[in-house]
Amino acid sequence: MSHAHGETPTGRGEGRLRVVLALTATVMLAEAVGGVYTHSLALLADAGHMLTDVAGLVLALVAIRFARRPATPEHTFGYHRVEILAALTNAVALVGIAILVLIEAWHRFRDPPRVASGAMLAIATLGLAVNLAGMLLMRRSARESLNLKGVYYELLSDLLASLGVIVAALIMATTGWYYADPLISAAIGLFIIPRTWELLRGAVGILLEGTPADVNLAAVRQALTEEPVICAVHDLHVWTLTSGINAMSVHVVRADGATHDEVLELVQRKVKANFKVAHVTVQVESRGCAAGETHL
Fold first, then answer.
1. Which of 45, 163, 208, 284 has the fewest CB atoms within 10 Å distance of its CB?
2. Which residue ranges form the domains of the chain, and what is each CATH number?
3. What is the pLDDT of residues 161-192, one digit of tens each?
4. Helix axes 41-67 and 14-38, enclosed angle (nearest 10)
5. 234 forms bridges with which residues in the sheet?
6. Distance between CA 269 and CA 291 in Å, rounded?
7. Per 3-state DSSP, what percentage of the chain is helix, strand, and coil (rounded to 5)?
């Protein structure tokens, strides 16, 4: 039997995601062409970073489509985890881009080329404006979805990278010191790496079925055991299906005199009302038939 788990937080941000994709792709092409024309590694680095943004946005949109597919006998929870795989892919891609930028910056330190700083400044200013607009569009959705948080962080990284490119262009235009270009490029690369850590850790934690940070397992256990109709709780598990959708399974031992349906309704109602859990599976046991704890 399939279960409907509702629209995900990522799905609710689809419209804004499409707008940001169109804006980001346009600026990425402008920076790539501009980087070749002006000989600016900083612009090319920003364009490369924005390429991961475009890829991440496309992956996020694909993930939304998959997440909306109904559950099947082979995938009883549906395809919500595709969103987490997209977030993980984004994090890995960002690290790869950062390493490539750092390698190229090292080579340019040895022999920095002349850069057309005026055109570089104009293109970087356009990129700054688009990244700022994208961040404003995605700010609310990023609080609810790990996948969209990854997109938001990439936009933030691009905004700061654009600021760096602008600074480099101004330095080269006023002083002719062309080392500013590889220096800012290296700074962009170094900035990207730690910013991906939270995203990577969150995605891996979900894939490893870790307990969600917004659910206190001890508090859940205490809330259930303090009920007179429940005398014991075991095999309590809470995990995340995708951003904003947590699931829980639990075995509860009913007290003498309590009915199966009474305990089942109580657990479902109390957990959903007091904790951030959307899907609850409960096994109710009597004292004589209670199974032992199989997972600690």
1. 208
2. 9-207 (1.20.1510.10), 217-289 (3.30.70.1350)
3. 788 889 888 998 888 888 888 888 888 778 77
4. 160
5. 251
6. 23
7. 65, 10, 25
